[in-house]
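dumping these here so i dont lose them again. two proteins, back to back, each one seq then C-alpha cells. dont judge the mess
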Amino acid sequence: MYTPLNKEQYAVNLRATVKLGKLSETESIAALQRAWVNTRFQHPMIAVTDDGNNLVYEVPDSTKLSDWIGKSFLVHKGEKVTEFLLTALLQDYQTLHYFPETSEILMRTHHLLTDGIGAVCLLDRFLTYLSADETLPIFGSEQLRLAPSHTEAAGISTVLSPSAEATAEEVFMSFVTKMPSVGLPILPLSKPGGTKVFTLASPLSTLPKLLAAVRKHKLGVAAAVQSAIILVTHEMAPPALAKRDFSTIAYFSHREYLPNPYSDMAAWPMGLWMIGLPLSQPQADFATTANNMQAVYGQDLGIDTSSTFEWYSGFSARMAKLLASPMPDNVPPPTQPQLSSIGLLDGKVKAHYEGKVKVEVESLEPIVDMMAAQIVVYQWYEYFDS
C-alpha cells in the first residue's frame, strides 16, 4: 500500500559501525564496493527485482553490473543513518549504504527476500568478503545459487487435504475474530513519515543475570520480552482497546529445521525462511502470560514432527489475501507492538575479521522500516569480545 508513496514497509536494515584498519576514505569506499560485488556473486538474490508477479534475476554483463553498482551501493557524505531512515525511499535492489563520517554501513534488504536472521548472516558474509578483499569475480554461474521459496526448501506441501483446509480455516477465523488487538494510543497521520529508531541497551553484566532468571522460570528470552510487551500495552492502551486480547503474529526463524544445504546459514543467508503463527493472549498477570508465551515460542517446529505444516500453507494463503485487502472503515489500524527476536548475535557476526583488510565491528543494530504508526521491537543480545 506504500508503493505509490515510493516507500517500503518492513525493509530489513542492519546498521553496523565498522573500522577498516588504516584505509583512507577513498580506499574504504573501493574495498566496500568490491566486497558488495563479491556478495552479489555468492548470493545473487541481493540483485533480484520484483516485476509484480515474479522475482527476476539477470546475469549481468559489464554495463549492467556497473548500473547495478550505481543503484545499490551508495555513499552518504554529511548524512547520518537516522536522517536517512526518516526519508528512505523504495529501491529496486537490496542496497548497501556507507556513511563515512560515522564509519557506519547500513545493509538494506527487501523483506520478501530474507528474514532478520538471514540478513544478519548476510552481513557476516559481506564482512568476510570485505576482509578477504579478493578480486572481482566473473559472473555467469551465480544464478545456480538463487534461493528457493520456503515451501520448496522445507518440502512443505501447498496442496492440502480437506481436513487440513478445515483446520487452516479454523485457525484463521479464530485469529481474525480476535482483532482488533489491544494497542497503543497514536496520533492521527495524514501520510507516513519515516522510521524512527530508539535503542534501549543494558550493560553486559546484566546479561548473565537475565539469562539465569529466565532459565529459573523455564522461559526463553523471547517469551519473557513478549510478555512484558503485552503487559505494558494493556497498561497504556486507550479505553476503547484496553479490554481486547493482545493479538499478533509470532515470528520464527525456520532455518535450523530445514534440510541440508539450506540449514547452513553461511552458505544460504538469502531466502525468506521464516514462519508466522497467530498469537492471542487475554489480559493476565506476568507469570500466566509468560507461561503461555513460552508455549508459543518454545514449540517444536520440526517439519516431520509438527502438525503445523499440515495446515500452515492454507493459513498463510488466507492471511495474504486478508493483508492485501483494504482495511474496513470501522476497524482501527493495528497499533500493538510487534516482536522480532534475533537472539544471540555471537556466532552469526564476529567482532573481528582478520584478512587483508582488518575489519572491526564496534556495534550492530537491526532496524525495520515501519510506515504505519506502529512499533517493532527487535530483541537481541551479544557478548562479542567484551
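---- next one ----
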Amino acid sequence: MAGEDTRLEDARLDLLSIQTRALAAVREYGRYLRDAEDAGLPEFAYFVRQLMEEDSARAAHCHALLRRLGAV
C-alpha cells in the first residue's frame, strides 16, 4: 500500500508541476503579446494568443484532475 500512496503523491506532484509551468508560461506570453502588438505583427500576436489559450486550458485541466485526486 505504501508504494501506491507514493505513486499517487508522485502523480499529484507531476500535475502540480505541469499546472505551475502552464500558468507561468501564460504570464510570460503576456510580454510576448505586447511585443507582437507593439511591433505591428498580428500573425505573431494571434499565435501568442493561441499559446495562452492552450496553456490556460492545460492548467485548468490539471486543476480538474487534481480535484479528482483529492489534492485541491
